[in-house]
Write a structure and sequence with these properties.
The protein has 9 helices and 10 strands. The protein is α/β, with parallel strands linked by helices.
Length: 289
Amino acid sequence: MPKDKFTAVWVSHTSISDFLKCPRAYYLKNVYRDPKTKHKIKLMSPALALGQSVHEVLESLSQLPRGGRFSEPLPTKFERAWEKVKGERGGFANDDSEYQYKKRGLEMLSRVFNHPGPINNLSVKIQMDLPYYWLSEEDNIILCGKVDWLEYLPDTDSVHIIDFKTGKIQEEESSLQLPIYSLLVAKCQKRKTTKVSYWYLADSDTLTEKQLPELEESEKKILEIARQMKVARQINRFKCHQGEDGCFACKPFEKIITGGAKFVGNDEYNADVYIMDKAETENRDGEIL
């Protein structure tokens, strides 16, 4: 089959994680479109609002030369980002809940300012809005994703992959996030990756370095899952692992399509954004981003 970006199945760390957790949730988040608006649907929550805002600020730093990254105060940048998710649009149950999440975001950025570490070093920027490569031309599958930060290591002319974490729970060892990012970095720029790390911004001033993924093994594993995703799309079969009752991953999205959630607007990609009612939002405050 000749490669065609428009008919290819695009997979990412997020969509693969969705599929592994629950194929039905994957379908509702990544494939389904509202019959009336023709838009995808998105469920906003306080944890997602927090992560989105902090990442937006840090992403803006990656666009700047290292000498000017802190020329504008980070709280000022954060206030602009927070405007997009404040109040109901962020799924906050009340003013106090919003205050607590916003405070956490400001504390994370204060940590970055006071202990900038790699943020003060040279960095590499992949010259693609959305880095991607053909995971399999034969299967017409593309792997894509945005890497939070690429620190340049001049002594070895190599790069250090860094992923910022705003949640409270550490990433599992079985996570495919760093293997996927390592593949994207290897395919989308010329330098070798010699370090991979997470930065848990909620409670750590330093990075947590992880073992370098083995690229060939990672690619094989990711392609196997991507092929399963493609088959599910071809036969339109997306069954929840828990059966008809659904699971924690798909049930909130089922509520959206049955009218049990509140529409609050559209995001930058024109997806229809919904929130759960206040009681459910409070119960979901501890979810992991």
